[in-house]
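Dear colleagues,

As part of the handover before I leave the project, I'm documenting each prediction I ran so the next person doesn't have to rerun anything. This entry is a single chain, and its sequence is reproduced below.
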Amino acid sequence: MPGHIEKDRSWFWKIGSLVAILIIVYLFSDPISVFVKNHKWELLLTYVGLMLFISWVFSNWFQYHIENLRRSWYFLFIIGIAMFLGEKGFEESQWAIFGMLVSMFIFVDLAIFLTPMISKIAGAEFVPKGVQHMERTNKNMKLAIEKTQSKSQVFTTFVSRVLPDQFGTTIWESSVEYRDSLELFMEPYAQECHQRIAVLSIPDLDTFIRELGSSLGIQLNEEQKTTISNGEFLEISKQMNFIPFHKPNLYPVVIVVMTDKDVIHQIDVSNILNIAMIHSWYHATEDKEATVEETR
């Protein structure tokens, strides 16, 4: 349901923007037409310069939208030809001028939009843009797979060091004691993955918000507070995730995962939840608590 609402909102804004543009064009059609006629070459040069700038500074965005940008360029070409014919009319003797205009637009299209797609010019071979994008995607996927395999190995090593004979032998007298124990238990995994983990108690939302601000200096907006209050996973950024964890008979906590060198992957969230679950197995059940107390 939320996804449909977001899509509806997206279409609403798109249609609203289109309607607003049409209204502005209708109300100011004459001054807009005069301005475009008087500055047509400046507008074209501005567009070309802007595309060149974007292709350098925002290359990923440029590659993703390149087809739409090309369509916009040829739309400007059609509008320009229509305006030129409206001003000068068509004379067969001016075919050279029209040929020059067409050649100019095609040259800019080749220079700005299609240069990486040309595979061979005068014996010099180029890698097509589609292949470049695919290679970059494959490289990113390979890195993600390597990260996943590496962290799976870290988790496997961590589990192999767990001592099952100590399960059900620990009693945490307070939320602070449990929180500190869980944080210490997770530390080896965090160090291996170049992450930092902070475990915060969440007896209630207000207390958690205060502790979050005082210990980590983080402020949450209302939507984020609601997410945490509902016990749901919260991604603050690619370098910071909040993972609520609460098991019956244990104190509720929020595990804050942070990293500076990498991003937090989905496998990190799964591994950390599994580690928290393993840690909970050390908790003494009711029938064992009396035995633990007697041995103290």
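Residues 2-128 form one domain. The CA atoms of residues 235 and 241 lie 5 Å apart.

All the best with the project,
I.
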